[in-house]
Specification:
Layout (H helix, E strand, L loop, with lengths): L1 E5 L3 H8 L3 E6 L16 E5 L15 H13 L6 E5 L5 H13 L5 H11 L7 H10 L5 H9 L11 E3 L3
Parallel strand pairs: 1-4, 2-3, 2-4
Antiparallel strand pairs: 1-5
């Protein structure tokens, strides 16, 4: 099970779910305080801005970020839930959770995972650039990006509510 939440609900989500692994996809300078139950070796901090194209002074999603996300997801032992968060729980974290689900279940249809994401969170708006990079890295031939485009932009909100994506 992959749980997604905003930074403000990280401790609560880890405690409620019993998660032992945390993936932080957030701006480089944003401090993240882990709950004491999460060991340092079970945490990955991937720092980049939530943008869809390069912009001066900002860090855009790149293949290095996607490779780090994929590597962490694949090393996750799946004995306890994984929590993925960004600042608001809307874009970077939802894209990262979608990417992890696609990587961990290569036989599962991308559109099915995207629809499950939308059903779990009407607010989710996965970062399209991050998804496109992962789509290429995973050899999904544009299907991941098409599936995310098909579910459309999520409902506007100040931050997302925690939600989960089930794995098979």
């Amino acid at each position: 099970m992959i749980h997604v939440c905003p930074l403000s609900r990280l401790a609560e989500t880890v405690t409620r779910t019993g998660a032992e692994h945390v993936l932080s996809v957030i701006n480089i300078a944003t401090p993240v305080t882990l709950p004491p139950t999460v060991l340092r070796e079970n945490h990955l901090f991937v720092g980049f801005n939530d943008i869809l194209a390069p912009q001066d002074g900002l860090v855009h999603p790149s293949i290095e970020h996607v490779e780090a996300i994929l590597g962490f997801a694949r090393r996750w032992p799946r004995q306890a839930p994984l929590v993925v968060h960004c600042y608001l729980g809307v874009s970077r974290s939802t894209a990262s959770a979608y990417i992890a689900a696609c990587a961990l279940e290569p036989e599962r249809d991308e559109a099915e995972i995207a629809h499950a994401l939308r059903a779990a969170s009407p607010i989710a708006t996965p970062n399209a650039l991050l998804v496109a990079i992962a789509d290429s890295a995973l050899g999904r031939q544009g299907r991941m990006s098409a599936a995310i485009a098909a579910i459309g932009r999520g409902r506007e909100a100040m931050e997302n509510e925690p939600f989960e994506i089930r794995l098979g």
